[in-house]
Design brief:
Elements lengths: L1 E8 L2 H10 L10 E6 L23 H27 L2 H22 L20 E7 L5 H11 L3 E8 L1 E2 L2 E2 L17 H15 L1
Helix pairs in contact: 2-3
């Protein structure tokens, strides 16, 4: 595994400026690269489309929708029966159930949706990185880490991170846009590591 410093830019100008500056900072061309991270949900990494079954903040939305639909259907049926007694139309009962279930599922799903917590993120339920131009730099030589961080920040990089990854021939091979940037030096989050370890173990079995 290699030590990698990376930073995100909202536009290509900052990323290009860093790429021009790195050789003068002592970095070889095989030690850095730039690539674009597409917006969350648009990485096409899930078999049926998208990136995951649900993100970390919405992992309980399905259960909330089911409970909400059941409660809404019950309320709607009661309202429909009341309308039936007045209008003498069976359709009022069916409409009440359908409308109640729809509104209830929506409210239930929204009540279980929150901002994703990177500390609880996994590959199956990620907190994805923001879109932008990434510059990644391999820092294996003495003092190269501090020079890479300083160069990125000097040119306006956001979410500057120091992490570990598989670097081969100038390419960060195991970069996954579904994992959040680490909050401190090292791996992204304990939950992501546990999730990857579990998946690897299952595949070997």
């Amino acid at each position: 595994m290699s030590i990698i410093v990376a930073g995100r830019f909202d536009d290509s100008a900052g990323a290009e400026a860093v790429l021009r500056a790195l050789p003068s900072e002592g970095f070889q061309r095989s030690e850095f690269q730039s690539f674009f991270v597409t917006p969350p949900g648009q990485h096409a990494m899930y078999p049926v489309g998208g990136d995951a079954h649900s993100d970390e903040g919405a992992r309980h939305a399905g259960a909330g929708a089911i409970k909400g639909a059941a409660a809404g259907a019950a309320i709607g049926m009661a309202a429909g029966i009341a309308a039936f007694l007045i209008l003498d139309q069976l359709i009022a009962v069916l409409a009440g159930i359908g409308l109640g279930a729809y509104v209830g599922s929506l409210v239930g799903a929204l009540s279980k949706t929150r901002s994703g917590n990177p500390g609880r993120a996994t590959i199956r339920h990620p907190v994805e990185r923001p879109s932008g131009h990434m510059v990644a730099i391999r820092v294996e030589r003495p003092e190269s880490e501090s020079r890479a961080v300083e160069t990125l920040r000097r040119h306006g990089a956001k979410d500057v991170e120091v992490t570990e990854g598989n670097w081969q021939a100038g390419d960060w091979k195991d970069f996954d846009p579904r994992t959040p940037a680490p909050t401190e030096r090292g791996v992204p989050t304990p939950s992501v590591v546990a999730d990857i370890t579990t998946e690897t173990h299952d595949k070997r079995r």
